[in-house]
Specification:
The structure holds 2 protein chains of 2 kinds. By secondary structure, chain A is mostly helical. Chain A is 71% helix and 3% strand. Chain A is built from 39 helices and 4 strands. In chain A, the strands form 2 sheets. Chain A has a two-stranded antiparallel ribbon with strand order 1-2. In chain A, strands 3-4 form a two-stranded antiparallel sheet. In chain A, a hairpin with a 4-residue loop joins strand 1 and strand 2. In chain A, helix 7 packs antiparallel against helix 10 and helix 15 runs parallel beside helix 20. The termini of chain A are far apart. By secondary structure, chain B is an all-alpha fold. Chain B has one domain: Helix Hairpins (Orthogonal Bundle). Chain B has 3 helices and no strands. In chain B, helix 2 packs antiparallel against helix 3. Chain B starts with a helix and ends in a 12-residue tail after the last helix. Chains A and B meet through helix 26, helix 27, helix 28, helix 29 and helix 30 of A and helix 1, helix 2 and helix 3 of B.
Chain lengths: 975, 113
């Protein structure tokens, strides 16, 4: 028992991971690996049979999201066992087949890797005991199917087919998810056991019909049922092993698998009968009719798959237990004969280079073995006696009579539909064999000389052997397995049924003979009248693929048009809307509930504070006024407003904020100064449109908006400030900071200890932003006209030329004295920054402030000494600092795991160092060190990257000029 | 005192919003900087104003009302640093925009006349 069930699901994924890393030509190694994985899985599944027989269930529960009722729950009963066996057994054969099918030039790791992943996903789907988990694996099969259909992604049809298949099946999967969530709401659990128990509650619930429709949407899209069948023929662009495995044997069966799985919970109502039966019958008829007229061998098989899945769906819809057993039986039978037919098709394709029924003919001479295999498999598909297809089809005919017995009109309709579909399925099977293998040989037309391949035929032959064996001795071979599966769905009491070739002369037997004779006659008529190679009559007009494309295009265009209509293209308009909504949202409560001031005692006005903010407000308004034409002035005034803000923080007992604001103010100003150089020149004189009426109206409107926003915020702030504040949260921090965290500076304690995880996230953001800035600037090409030498320097040079030798520019080395100063300042600043870092826990300071001070010290060196000078002497690696910072912070958090405590729990120890002092050591300091390093790294990285633009641009213009000159010279020289 | 504080935030907000609605990237950049001052002061103000009561503990047992509210301060402290980072990002984006489109209009092209 141990781990076997987990291994069945886990092994394929591990295999997939390994397979992805093999060299691209390792066909044999890949096949061996995948073969071993599939055989191991099959063996594990087989070894579990004793546990599931007679209604036994193997369960593995792992907690996943227990709060949401979603567990990782593997559950294997007889039915799941049968499917798991099918998936692994088919998987092994397909791997063997693919080894010979794939060309040496194909990149096999991708193929086998996705094939293994698909197998894991499929096993996960059939073994899921939790509905949410089932949907996850379900979508995984869609995803891997997408990858496998698009395996030859250089081909347009492969890409289109993959896209269509994924849109349809993933869309259906979403519907299924919705349905499953609703089931979960009704039942109160996503556990399959509970859901199957609660069938009556689900059927009686008001949501039953929506649930049913959503689940059926998922199942029908997956199983290519009408009207969602169109993706299956398009998916035939996949390599043939994929078609054999996914699109006939396993993945498309997932839909009908689910219908049978949820049969006890959902079936038994009229809604179920009508919805499921009509989709099944329509698919059966359309599929078998269309299959008769396909030119591509795989096209025939694709439509026939649709028809057979329709047959299974129809059986499931009939609401009788016998029909359910027949459906399960046919799922297995169809998988065997259809996969073997696909493989035979692949053999023909491989040997002749074509799958076109028009070109192929008379291959029985060159490929006698293949012909034999294909004939038997096609016989099973047509429902010829002594083959497995006959048995399940017989059961289907019988059920079509039984199920319809109570509804009078259906008495005729269902058996007729069944017989007509039977006729067509005989006709297309016959045609498939006759056109490819019989008739005059056309070997000369083909590029290769076809012959029977050796081992490539083996999987197909094995499957055909199974068809025969089951067909002749059904009760001995498949009987017990089928019973085990049926018991697990229907419970221990099964209805009477007999798996036998001969039931005596019955109506179903008569229907079988009508179908056989009618199918042969139909094909002969079509053949003699040369009607076999025409586009499908009637149905070719209704091309669902084209409808799908049209809908697709219409939706895309409609979305674009809608966006153009409702989405203003101008940023100003968008911002106006946003600001307008924000203002409205702010004023509405005031309008609704009135505006009152609180009665809390206020502080007496300090005239100094008034004066301070007089200056601050002037700075803010000045910035707003000057930002367009006098950027430097605006920048200086912005700094003024920032300083006033900083003083305000200091005033109202927030020393940490004041320190941080001050340091940020410095680096922000440097940043803007560096950026200013790349902005276009803008003079007031150049803007004639400023005076127009329209422009004035617009500005008036904006002033009104700004005033409304400002007044609103003022009122809001005043309303809050006049009411007493009482935050229990703050009381908690104040009460516990010293005792629990050992720090006196509560703000710092909150940052690095209580809310350390937030801070970790924040410094990560800062690091990411810095790297983004760096990356942008590496790509960034400054605007052409700003790449020149700055205007001020040019004018200086021009003035020098005008005035002559008496013009005195600034003397050489005029920065020498400040340079000496800042060099002396550097170690001091470093010391101060470390001081801030270390004392942060108990006094204003901390990693943020310390880091900013250090970054400022470095930037000042750059500014005064120049980039080249500083970088030739002192290499600072900001990226390394960012990395170290994140690592330090992360490790400080992870250290808590060593003592089995949650992430970021502070570890502290007090050591008494003799003669020196009592030393308090804490992992919090390491965390703060991480913050410190990261802030230095990020700030320096951004500023230096911007500063480096100046170094880049002149060199580039120079190079460009040189190239231009060289080109002119080389053009001129020969002439 | 509270009135002055509120008006100060209002003036910063109004100037910021005005700049936010302007057509040139540099104006928007300045506007965002002013708005971030206003926002920081606003959040800080939610802890109420208090003078000479920094949240730095002198002894373990603290009576209520002796210290300023530390929570808004901690929020604002990280907001200041992140604000700097996003300002830098925005600056670089507008420089790249200017280089790519040849204009400093927020829409990436001069308005049609």
């Amino acid at each position: 028992m141990l781990m076997r069930l987990e291994l069945i699901v886990l092994l394929p994924f591990l295999g997939s991971l390994c397979a992805a890393f093999f060299p691209s030509n390792a066909r044999n190694a890949e096949a061996w690996l995948s073969g071993i994985v599939t055989v191991l899985c099959a063996g594990l599944v087989a070894s579990l049979y004793p546990d599931v027989v007679a209604g036994g269930v193997v369960r593995v529960h792992l907690e996943w999201l227990p709060q949401l009722g979603v567990d990782f729950y593997l559950r294997m009963d007889g039915y799941a066992w049968l499917f798991a066996m099918l998936v692994t057994f088919m998987g092994a054969l397909v791997v063997l087949y693919a080894r010979y099918y794939m060309a040496p030039t194909d990149p096999v790791p991708r193929f086998f890797s996705f094939l293994m992943a698909f197998m894991g996903a499929m096993l996960g789907t059939v073994l899921s005991g939790n509905l949410i988990q089932l949907v996850v694996f379900w979508e995984l099969t869609s995803l891997t199917s997408f990858m496998l259909i698009a395996y030859w992604y250089h081909r347009r049809d492969a890409r289109r087919g993959a896209r269509m298949a994924s849109i349809v099946t993933v869309g259906g999967g979403l519907a299924l998810l919705a349905g499953v969530l609703m089931i979960g709401e009704i039942v109160g659990s996503y556990d399959l056991d509970d859901v199957l128990e609660a069938g009556d509650a689900i059927r009686a619930h008001a949501w039953y019909v929506p649930v049913l429709v959503l689940v059926l949407l998922g199942a029908f899209t997956k199983s290519a049922q009408f009207p969602f069948h169109f993706w299956l023929p398009q998916a035939m662009a996949a390599p043939t092993p994929v078609s054999a495995y996914l699109h006939s044997a396993t993945m498309v069966k997932a839909g009908v698998f689910l219908l049978a799985r949820l049969w006890p919970a959902l079936a038994g109502t009229d809604e179920w009968f009508w919805l499921v039966c009509s989709a099944g019958a329509a698919s059966l008829l359309i599929g078998s009719f269309s299959a008769t007229f396909q030119r591509d061998m795989k096209g025939v098989l694709a439509y026939s798959t649709m028809a057979h899945l329709g047959l299974i769906t129809l059986l499931l819809g009939m609401n009788t237990e016998l029909a359910l057993i027949a459906a399960v039986f046919h799922m297995m039978n169809h998988a065997t004969f259809k996969a073997s037919l696909f493989m035979a098709t692949g053999v023909v394709d491989h040997e002749t280079g074509t799958r076109d029924l028009k070109r192929l003919s008379g291959l029985r001479h060159a490929m006698p073995l293949t012909t034999m295999v294909a004939i038997v498999a096609a016989g099973a598909m047509a429902g010829v006696p002594l083959l497995n297809g006959f048995l399940s089809k017989e059961m289907f005919f019988e059920e079509s009579i039984v199920a319809a017995s109570d509804a009078s009109g259906l008495r005729i309709v269902l058996p007729t539909v069944a017989t007509i579909a039977g006729i067509f399925s005989v006709a297309y099977s016959l045609r498939f064999i006759h056109e490819v293998f019989f008739g005059p040989p056309t070997i000369d037309d083909l590029h290769r000389r076809p012959h029977d391949p050796g081992r490539m035929l083996l999987p197909s032959a094995l499957l055909v052997g199974a068809c025969l064996l089951v067909g002749v001795l059904p009760a001995r071979t498949v009987g017990p397995l089928l019973e085990t599966a049926a018991v697990s769905i229907l419970g221990p009491v099964l209805p009477e049924y007999q798996l036998a070739v001969w039931h005596g002369f019955t109506i179903p037997l008569l229907m079988s003979f009508v179908a056989l004779a009618g199918g042969i006659a139909l094909y002969l008529i079509l053949y003699w009248r040369k009607r076999t190679l025409v586009p499908t009559p009637l149905l070719s007009r209704f091309n669902s693929r084209r409808i799908f494309d049209m809908v697709n295009v219409a939706v895309t265009r409609g979305a674009g048009r809608l966006a153009r209509h409702i989405y203003p293209r101008r940023l100003q308009t968008q911002l106006l809307v946003i600001v307008g909504f924000a203002i409205a949202a702010g004023y509405l409560p005031i309008l609704a509930a009135g505006y009152t001031l609180g009665t809390a005692p206020l502080m007496t006005l300090d005239p100094l504070f008034l004066l301070l903010w007089g200056a601050g407000a002037a700075c803010a308004i000045g910035t707003a006024y000057q930002a367009k034409f006098h950027r430097l002035a605006a920048l200086i005034m912005l700094g003024g407003a920032g300083l006033v803000t900083c003083l305000t923080f200091a005033w109202f007992s927030a020393p940490d904020l004041a320190l941080t604001q001050l340091a940020v103010e410095v680096v922000t100003t440097v940043l803007f100064l560096l950026g200013l150089r790349w902005m276009p020149r803008r003079l007031e004189l150049d803007a004639p449109r400023r005076r127009t009426l329209e422009a004035r109206a617009r500005r008036t409107r904006d002033v009104l908006f700004a005033a409304a926003a400002g007044i609103g915020v003022t009122l809001l702030t005043l309303a809050v400030l006049t009411r007493p504040g009482a935050s229990t949260l703050s009381q908690f921090f104040l009460a516990n900071a010293l005792e629990e965290a050992g720090g006196r500076n509560v703000v710092n304690v909150i940052l690095v200890d209580f809310r350390g995880f937030d801070t970790l996230g924040e410094i990560t953001v800062v690091g990411i932003v810095a790297i983004t800035v760096y990356a942008l600037l590496r790509r960034f090409r400054p605007a052409p006209e700003s790449m020149d030498v700055p205007r001020a320097q040019r004018e200086d040079a021009a003035r020098a030329a005008l005035v002559g030798p008496s013009f005195e520019p600034l003397p050489r080395g005029y920065m020498r004295v400040p340079a000496v100063f800042v060099r002396l300042l550097f170690p001091m600043a470093g010391l101060v920054s470390l001081y801030f870092l270390l004392r942060g826990h108990n006094a204003p300071g901390g990693g943020f402030v310390g880091g900013l001070v250090m970054a400022t010290a470095i930037i000042v060196q750059y500014m005064v000494n120049g980039t080249i000078w500083i970088e030739s002497r002192l290499r600072i690696h900001p990226l390394v600092l960012i990395t170290l910072g994140l690592l330090a912070a992360g490790l400080a958090g992870a250290a808590a795991w060593l003592t089995a405590q949650p992430f970021l729990t502070a570890l502290a120890a007090d050591w008494h160092v003799p003669l020196l002092a009592d030393l308090h050591v804490s992992s919090v300091l390491v965390f703060d060190l991480g913050v410190y390093l990261l802030v230095i790294g990020a700030t320096v990285l951004m500023l230096v990257a911007l500063a480096h633009q100046t170094l880049r641009s002149p060199r580039r213009t120079l190079v460009r000029g040189d190239v231009e000159q060289a080109r002119l010279q080389s053009e001129g020289a020969p002439g | 005192m509270e009135l002055v504080y509120s008006i100060a935030i209002g003036v910063l907000t109004a100037s910021g919003v005005w700049l936010l609605l302007r057509p040139r990237t540099f104006q928007v950049l300045m506007g965002l900087a002013l708005l971030s001052y206003a926002t920081n002061l606003f959040i800080f103000g939610m802890g109420r104003l208090s003078k000479d009561m920094p949240p730095i503990l002198q002894q373990a047992a603290t009576a209520a009302g002796v210290h300023a509210d530390p929570v808004p301060q901690a929020l604002v402290l990280t907001a200041i640093v992140i604000g700097f980072a996003t300002t830098a990002l925005f600056l670089v984006v507008i420089l790249a925009l200017r280089a790519l489109t040849g204009t400093d209009h927020v829409d990436g092209r001069e308005p049609d006349t």
